[in-house]
Amino acid sequence: MADAATETTQATETTVVESWTEWDPLAHVIVGRADDCHIPPAEPALDAKVPADSDMRGQWGRRPQESIDRANELLDRFADQLRARGIRVDRPTPIDFSEPVRTPDFETASQFGCMPPRDVLLTVGREILEATMSYRCRWFEYLCYRPLLQRYWEEDPNFRHEAAPKPRLTDADYRPDYLSESISIAQRLDWAAAKHFVTTEEEPLFDAADVLRFGRDLVVQHGFTTNLKGIEWLRRHFPEHRVHAVNFPGDPYPIHIDATFTPIRPGLILNNPQRRLPAECRGLFERNGWEIVDAAQPAHNTPPPLCYSSVWLSMNVLVLDPKTVCVEASEVYQAEQLDRLGMEVVPVELRDAYAFGGGLHCCTADVRRIGSCTDHFPAG
Ligand code: DAV
Q1: Could you give all domains of the chain from N- to C-terminal order, each with its CATH number?
Q2: What dihedral do alpha carbons 218, 322, 163, 255 form, nearest 10°?
Q3: How far is the centre of ligand 1, averaged over its atoms, from the C-alpha of 256 (Å)?
Q4: For the CA of 119, the nearest atom of ligand 1
Q5: Does residue 24 carry a catalytic annotation?
Q6: Nearest CA to ligand 1 atom 3
Q7: Of residues 38, 222, 241, 256, which has the active-site annotation?
Q8: Tens of pLDDT, residue by residue, the chain (380 residues)
Q9: Residue 112: how many other CB atoms lie within 10 Å
Q10: Is 307 marked active-site?
């Protein structure tokens, strides 16, 4: 628990929403909650992500209470660790995820949760943008963040609260060939290399966790959860930014960029060695002297039970400032590598919360990092 003095300081602190990068000094952040988290019923985009042999195939419903309590214990402790470093931490307000989602276009029997705010909220400068999302079960997830966003809007006269157009998510958004239960990994890799993803180009779709912020530049993953129209929508929405589409052919389930490509500080990016950035996307980084290094191997051979994410959550780290990074406590190889690269490593226990939506980067969303809109790629 944060002590009373810390709480008081934080409560009286002026709210400023502003964050331009993944690494500027973190001052204010949202940390998700595991409350009431559900395994959602089958739907096209979600099914495409669940491997044929996964323990999640065919089951859905509320997650066991002990696992929810354990995940919340870890998330609360992480929030306290950040507060102890002087970072202001806010938490979302869960809605009833057992409620179905029903719109004129589709219906699904339950929702998901609000552990990973990173998937939903994209902070770019003085704006927080609610992503379209691409899963039906996540249609209403933004509601969990509305109490906070409303408060920021009232407290910070420069805060721009934006929401991307809600997508219709009819069957036309999803490719039927991904519905088969027996797609081989080789087939998936061929499709990923050909940029044949589960989402079609019916309408703009993006999850916020497919976007990385590098000051004036935004790097966006084209994959299952973000389509080319979603990237084009971001380009038109942020006319002062350069928006770069990237894809990672080695990933059979390309959702979210944050276990694949992880900027650590200006000039340094970790890249998943099984999902290397292809040559045609490397120019921007090479011309500007950025180093892209293979991330260390994960410490685990398998993800925890009932988890959507891969073992590469090892590289889903949260940078606190260009010299300090939070790494999951059991990910010893990733910690060693970052230490060797000159970072101070802060271990944070989170593995038992992975199943609720990801790692340290996923379970947070920036409200404020101290910095400005810098051009980190002056050579274009
Ligand atoms: O490797 O399973 C996880 C990303 C979660 N935001 C993976 C990607």
Answers
A1: 16-369 (3.75.10.10)
A2: 70
A3: 6
A4: 6
A5: no
A6: 309
A7: 256
A8: 444 444 444 545 799 999 999 999 999 999 999 999 999 998 887 776 676 667 777 788 999 999 999 999 999 999 999 999 999 999 999 999 999 999 999 999 999 999 999 999 999 999 999 999 999 999 999 999 999 999 999 999 999 999 999 999 999 999 999 988 788 999 999 999 999 999 999 999 999 999 999 999 999 999 999 999 999 999 999 999 999 999 999 999 999 999 999 999 999 999 999 999 999 999 999 999 999 999 999 999 999 999 989 999 999 999 999 999 999 999 999 999 999 999 999 999 999 999 999 999 999 999 999 999 999 999 98
A9: 27
A10: no
Tell me the C-alpha distance between 141 and 359, whole Å. Answer: 18
Mutate to test the pocket of ligand 1, among 56, 255, 354, 364 (most ligand atoms within 8 A of CB): 255
Question: Which amino acid is present at 356?
Answer: F
C-alpha span between 202 and 347 (Å, rounded): 42
Which mutation among 134, 224, 226, 260 tests ligand 1's pocket best, with the greatest number of atoms within 8 A of CB? 260
Active site residue 47: no
Tell how far the Cα of 219 is from the centroid of ligand 1, in angstroms: 16
DSSP letter at 215 equals B
Strand ranges of the sheet holding 242-246, from the earlier edge strand across to the other edge: 211-214, 217-221, 242-246
CA of 236 to the centre of ligand 1 (A): 27
Contact 135, 46 (CB under 8 A): yes
Query: Which protein residue's CA is at the shortest distance from atom 5 of ligand 1?
Result: 358
Integer Cα distance of 113 and 129 in angstroms: 19
